[in-house]
Design goal:
single chain; alpha+beta; Heat Shock Protein 90; five-stranded mixed β-sheet; two-stranded antiparallel ribbon; 61% helix; elongated
């Protein structure tokens, strides 16, 4: 039996297992109808069979673009989810085909080629569709500026700041797609896909931070869904992605590698990434340090950079919503304001210390045993 015949015979089984894994690993899909989840994937498998039998990749390209179009309509769905979908599909295909003797290396390589090509085409299509976010971002920023009744001289600068910040990750996404089009080797492809994941998460985080901080009443707290998290493992995973793009060292120091804390993992990641982005932006291309410690049932995470110190007069305002330090840099305090909201939602706080000798240190503190509170 050929590999294409095996896929055709077990097509329904591949789809069934793929959807089961999808629901386990990508909770966002649970919000959508099962038919919408499956969408063009059966046709993609038929296109894969055609590729194996005729080496014609036109249908693979078409179906991966259709897949991206479908997924662009999903709420809270990003490029990283699409990439994960294809990797899960690859896993289930090989689960079936590896059970047959005499599978030719050429066929296995064609399947790998089909997956890589689909990711590239879907990424390009998804990016083009989501570019509309950049256009819509100005409209959203204008509405928020009106709602906050900003003065005319600040209104346009505020809007430009928001759209500029959103434009950066979109430009990086386009650059990563261009690298993929050059046909890098497997190791380089993995690194580029990680960078794509980071860029999409940064764009999502910017939008979410902006909306969350502007909508939450100062007297209220962000809603929190707590779970037990291995802190060192989580920090290492996040920092590993930054190391791909940041040319200087990022050092992690943690006294207890097994430290666990109860927190909302989604909010924590966004807060930590805001602190990392802030450190990289203002770090003057010097090494960045991340410290993690626990004392008196309190988790403390510090992110330290060696850039320009923060004036003492600015310290008490730096976490205020839409506050901008008058040093010529862009930004309206949205990221740091959100970090403050996350810390308060967990019953904690965030502080900053800044001097010439030790650099600028942001300290995020929350109770470790907050799960029972």
């Amino acid at each position: 039996m050929t590999i294409s015949e095996a896929i055709r015979r077990h097509k329904d089984l591949i789809l069934k297992r793929w959807k089961e894994r999808l629901y386990e690993e990508i909770p966002e899909v649970k919000r959508h109808d099962k038919a919408a989840i499956e969408n063009s994937v059966p046709d993609w498998l038929e296109a894969l069979i055609d590729l194996l039998e005729s080496t014609d990749n036109k249908e693979i390209v078409f179906n991966s673009q259709e897949h991206a179009l479908d997924r662009s309509r999903f709420q809270i769905y990003s490029l990283k989810h699409i990439i994960r979908e294809y990797n899960l599909l690859k896993h289930e295909i090989f689960n079936v085909t590896d059970g047959y003797d005499g599978v030719h290396p050429r066929d296995r390589n064609l399947i790998m080629y089909a997956i890589d090509l689909s990711i590239e085409e879907a990424a390009e299509a998804f990016y083009r569709i989501k570019q509309g976010v950049q256009v819509n971002a100005r409209s959203v920023a204008e509405q928020k500026a009106d709602a906050m009744q900003l003065q005319d001289d600040n209104r346009e600068q505020f809007i430009r700041s928001i759209t500029h910040d959103l434009n950066n990750p979109l430009i990086n996404i386009k650059g990563c797609i261009s690298l993929l089009e050059e046909g890098p080797d497997v190791n380089e492809t993995a690194k580029i896909l990680k960078m794509l994941k980071t860029c999409t998460e940064q764009a999502e985080s910017l939008i979410k931070n902006f909306l969350d901080v502007s909508e939450v009443n100062p007297t209220e707290k962000l809603p929190v869904r707590k779970e037990l998290v291995k802190i060192m493992e989580e920090i290492e995973n996040e920092v590993a992605v930054y190391k791909l793009a940041y040319r200087n060292r990022i050092d992690i120091q943690c006294a207890n590698s097994d430290l666990e804390a109860a927190l909302d993992i989604g909010l924590f990641r966004r807060a930590f990434n805001n602190l990392m982005n802030n450190a990289i932006k203002h770090g003057a291309n010097a090494p960045i340090e991340v410290h993690c410690s626990a004392k008196n049932d309190e988790l403390a995470i510090s992110v330290i950079n060696q850039g320009r110190t923060i004036p003492a007069a600015e310290m008490e305002h730096i976490f205020n919503r839409y506050y901008k330090i008058e040093d010529g840099s862009r930004g309206w305090g949205i990221g740091l304001a959100f970090v403050k909201e996350v810390a308060h939602a967990h019953g904690g706080e965030v502080k900053v210390k800044s001097n010439e000798e030790e650099g600028t240190r942001f300290i995020f503190r929350i109770p470790i045993n907050y799960l029972n509170n």
